[in-house]
Amino acid sequence: MVVATQRLSYAEFLAQCPEDGxxxxxxxxxxxxxPIRAHQNIARFLLFGFNDEIRRISANLIVDTSVVIQxxxxxxxxxxxxxxxxxxxxxxxxxxxxxxxxxxxxxxxxSTNWDDDYIDKLAExxxxxxxxxxxxxxxxxxxxxxLGNPKVPTVFVYQLHEGKYQQQKFTGEEPIVSGIFPELTxxxxxxxxxxxxx
Length: 198
Fold this sequence. Notes:
The protein has 6 helices and 11 strands. It is an alpha+beta fold. The chain is globular.
């Protein structure tokens, strides 16, 4: 749902962004994000899982669902879950949760506009230098060229190597491999169960 039609800069977006929900700046327009509850359940499950791991290993990291990052001059994204270095987050605690530096890890839970996550955000996050990007396709809505045949719920983990993302694909009971959280024990099945569907 488009909220504004004039092309806004990132600074204008931050000044004008409504406070009653989740929004991104897409091609200079404020766009409201309206995730369903299953989508939010996954984001919350991952937030808690990452936070538990951060506490367990005493990492200097913050995990949050409100981080906004500028990806181009007229583009700002709000990942479903972001992991940020604590020193970056706490550099100016009196400002909005918009960052000027990329998070270490960003998670996008796929909705019906799946090509945004697989194509647009993938390119933007790679160029921005986000070290790790997860795409959680819990409903297997992307095309077979991504998911294979038959299509099954999948988590893709993209890790940055020499400026380019390298992809790993996980399904079912396979342990998800994370460079940011190398000891994390998590499977796609656990993520799917968090949706509370069925």
